[in-house]
C-alpha cells in the first residue's frame, strides 16, 4: 500500500466515517461517570474536547460543501458493497439507461451515483452541530453566575467575593469588569408586586450610577448582557430565649416564603439549631408588621408560645422563660447570570435534528459496473437503484 492510499484511507476516516465522531463522546461519558461517582470534573477537559470536535465538524462541513456542487459526491472508493449482481446486459448499455434517469458516472464509466437530498441532510446535520459547539463553547467560556443575599446599603462587587451561594465564571467572563450592585429599596408584597420586588442600581467602579431598575420574581432586569433576577425575600430573625440569667436559645432563624399564608404570616423558619439540640419549635413572620409568632419547646415540652414585634413588644415573659426578638434583617436573594445564545442553540438543534432525519429517510443511490460486452457485474447501494436494475433486467 503506497503513501497516497494510506492518506486516502486516513482522510476518509476523518472526513466521512460516522464512527470516528464517537471518539469525541469518550470525554463526556468519562465526565458523567465521575459525576455519578461524585468526583470532581474538569471543565477545561470538556472544553478542549468540544473545541477539537468543533474543528473536526468544521472541516467535514467544508469538505462536504466543496463536493456538493459536483456530480460525484461520495466517490467509488467510499464504502463499496461486497455483494455482486450479474446482469445479462452490457455495462455501456446499462450506463446509458441509468444516465437517462438521473445517474451521473465517472469518466471511466465504472461508477455512478444519483444526487440525493440525504447528502444535504448530512450537511445540515453538520451545520447544526457546528452551531451547537461554537455557541455552546463560547457561552461556557463567558459563563457567569452568582447568587447573593443583599440588603439595602452599600454597593458590592460581583467578582464573587463576599457573596453567598455558588459562584461560576468562565475564562472570558470578565468578572472584575462588572459593575457594582446596590439594593436601593425593598418592596414588600402588594397588589402590584405579589411576591415583592427590589429596586437596584448598577454603579461603575468610581461609584457613578450606570442604570437602575426594579426586579421581582419572574421579572429580571437586563443590562450589559447580564440578567439580574430576584428569586425571593429572606429574613433573618435573631431570637433569644432566657431562663433567669441563663440563655436557653440564641440564634438567627432563617425565614423563607410559605407556599400559602398562615393567617397574617407568610414566612416560616425552624428553631432547630445544632448548638441547642434540646430546643425545637417554629417561627412565623408577618413582614408587614415585623411580627413573629414563636412556638418553642425544650425537651419536647412547650416553653414559649407568643408573638413578638420588632417595633413594639419585642420581649415577653412566659412562666420561667423570656423570649425576645433582638433584630430582623431583610435580604433580597438575587441571582446574576449571563444569558446564553438560546436562539442560536435552538436553531442548531433543529438543523441537526432535521438533517439527521433527512439522512436516515433518504438513502444514497450508487452503482459500480464491471463487465464485458455481453454481461455486467454490478454492485449496488440503494433500494431504488436495485428496483431500476430489476425493471431493466425484465425489459
Care to give the gist of this entry?
It is built from seven helices and 19 strands. The chain has 395 residues and is α+β, with helices and mostly antiparallel strands.
Please explain how this structure is put together.
The protein is of the alpha+beta class and 395 residues long. The protein is 29% helix and 37% strand. It is built from 7 helices and 19 strands. Strands 4, 5, 9, 10, 11, 12, 13, 14, 15, 16 and 17 form an 11-stranded antiparallel sheet that branches. α3 (43-68) packs antiparallel against α5 (117-141) and α5 (117-141) runs antiparallel to α6 (342-361). The longest helix is centred in the first third of the chain and has 26 residues, at 43-68. Mean pLDDT is 87; it is low at 1-7.
Amino acid at each position: 500500500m503506497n503513501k497516497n492510499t494510506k492518506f486516502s484511507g486516513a482522510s476518509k476516516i476523518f472526513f466521512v466515517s460516522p464512527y470516528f465522531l464517537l471518539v469525541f463522546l469518550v470525554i463526556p461519558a468519562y465526565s458523567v461517570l465521575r459525576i455519578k461517582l461524585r468526583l470532581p470534573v474538569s471543565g477545561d477537559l470538556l472544553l478542549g474536547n468540544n473545541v477539537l470536535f468543533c474543528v473536526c465538524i468544521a472541516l467535514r462541513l467544508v469538505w462536504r460543501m466543496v463536493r456538493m456542487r459536483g456530480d460525484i459526491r461520495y466517490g467509488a472508493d467510499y464504502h463499496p458493497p461486497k455483494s455482486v449482481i450479474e446482469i445479462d446486459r452490457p455495462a455501456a448499455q446499462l450506463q446509458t439507461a441509468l444516465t437517462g434517469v438521473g445517474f451521473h458516472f465517472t469518466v471511466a464509466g465504472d461508477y455512478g451515483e444519483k444526487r440525493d437530498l440525504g447528502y444535504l441532510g448530512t450537511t445540515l446535520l453538520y451545520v447544526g452541530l457546528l452551531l451547537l459547539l461554537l455557541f455552546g463553547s463560547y457561552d461556557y467560556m463567558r459563563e457567569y453566575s452568582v447568587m447573593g443575599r443583599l440588603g439595602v446599603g452599600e454597593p458590592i462587587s460581583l467578582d464573587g467575593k463576599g457573596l453567598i451561594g455558588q459562584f461560576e465564571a468562565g475564562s472570558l467572563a470578565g468578572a472584575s469588569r462588572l459593575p457594582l450592585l446596590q439594593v436601593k429599596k425593598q418592596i414588600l408584597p402588594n397588589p402590584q408586586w405579589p411576591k415583592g420586588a427590589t429596586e437596584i442600581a448598577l454603579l461603575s467602579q468610581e461609584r457613578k450610577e450606570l442604570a437602575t431598575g426594579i426586579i421581582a420574581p419572574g421579572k429580571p432586569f437586563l443590562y450589559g448582557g447580564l440578567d439580574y433576577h430576584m428569586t425571593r425575600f429572606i429574613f433573618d430573625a435573631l431570637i433569644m430565649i432566657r431562663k433567669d440569667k441563663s440563655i436557653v436559645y440564641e440564634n438567627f432563624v432563617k425565614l423563607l416564603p410559605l407556599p400559602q399564608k398562615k393567617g397574617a404570616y407568610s414566612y416560616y423558619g425552624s428553631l432547630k439549631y445544632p448548638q441547642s439540640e434540646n430546643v425545637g419549635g417554629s417561627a412565623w413572620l408577618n413582614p408587614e408588621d415585623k411580627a413573629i409568632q414563636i412556638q418553642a419547646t425544650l425537651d419536647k415540652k412547650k416553653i414559649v408560645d407568643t408573638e413578638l414585634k420588632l417595633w413594639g413588644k419585642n420581649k415577653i415573659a412566659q412562666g420561667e422563660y423570656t423570649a425576645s426578638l433582638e433584630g430582623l434583617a431583610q435580604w433580597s436573594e438575587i441571582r446574576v447570570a449571563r444569558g446564553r445564545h438560546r436562539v442560536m442553540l435552538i436553531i442548531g438543534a433543529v438543523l441537526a435534528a432535521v438533517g439527521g432525519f433527512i439522512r436516515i429517510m433518504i438513502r444514497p443511490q450508487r452503482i459500480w459496473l464491471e463487465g464485458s460486452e455481453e454481461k455486467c457485474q454490478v454492485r449496488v447501494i440503494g433500494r431504488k437503484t436495485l428496483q431500476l436494475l430489476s425493471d431493466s433486467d425484465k425489459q
